[in-house]
Amino acid sequence: MAETQLSLTPENDKTSKILPIIIVIIALLALSSTAIFIKVAVREMSAVATFFNRLWIATIIFGLWNGINQVRTQITEDKPVLPQQPYPIKEIALLIAVGLVHVLGRLSWTWALTQTGAANANALGSLNPLFTTLGGWLFFNQIFGRKFIIGLFLAIIGAIAVGFEDLLRSNNNITGDAVALTSSIFYAANFLLIEQIGNKFSTITILLWRCAIATSLMIPIVLILEKQIFPVTLSGWLVVFALAAICEALGHGLIVYSLKNFSSGFISLLLLLNPVIVAILAWILFSENLSIFNLLGLALILGGIYLAISNKEAVQSKINPQIQSPAEIDSSPVPQNNTNLKK
User: How many helices (H) and strands (E) does the chain have?
Assistant: First the structure.
């Protein structure tokens, strides 16, 4: 069998570098609509019930996506598809851990909002990149250069500055603040775990397992705590479907895919752009004013991210450093070969 040669023209090489950034931008735009959809959904049900509906609908979406992909693979490939080998116990445990920390992060964040001000919760949530970077360094031997660390702190300060005025008016609650801080740790753990298993499972497999496990864990919670679990109007169903399709499937799906190309620390840093995007959209669509703190925060976040990008070693994924094509998002993992690409 002839061996396939891999050659990159300058145009293809440039596209392979730009495309992952475009994918992250699309993910950020999709995630920026989350707050708007949740604000509408909680008119009919609680935030916990909204999260549950978002999860089980997303599980169906990912399940259908995975099924269609398998059928397409069987039709297009000439050779018969071999039965999939069972996953090792360790890898299954990591998948379960991803679903568990996903639920714990969302629930702790939701509960923190009922115990402390939104400004406090957002400020403490902005520490997520710090915990992601620290966890990568402590547990996975990831190395982050000086430029990345400086950019990280600049972006975190900027994210806090975006909501600084609200923070001044917010009432402090030590319990709520502690839970909000804990949610940041869970979010960081989620990113780090996904980055570690990214070369063992396809993106669609990770997303399907994460949502399925999270849905299973949420069932007893909503049955015990919630009186109304499902929407009662058509508009309510449309909103939770939008949360599942746009925010969970598209937004978080592309974020998980991006962890194959970028480090978890860098992805969590880019997510600090979310409140900035929301503020800009509110300014464009609803003529809401941007204060000096909003503008200062925007400048610091952009400056911090720009500085972090210059540290390429910290930006690149430590697990799978080669840039992949978007087709990988629904394909099976490919065993590593002996071909190395020079940076």
Answer: 16, 0
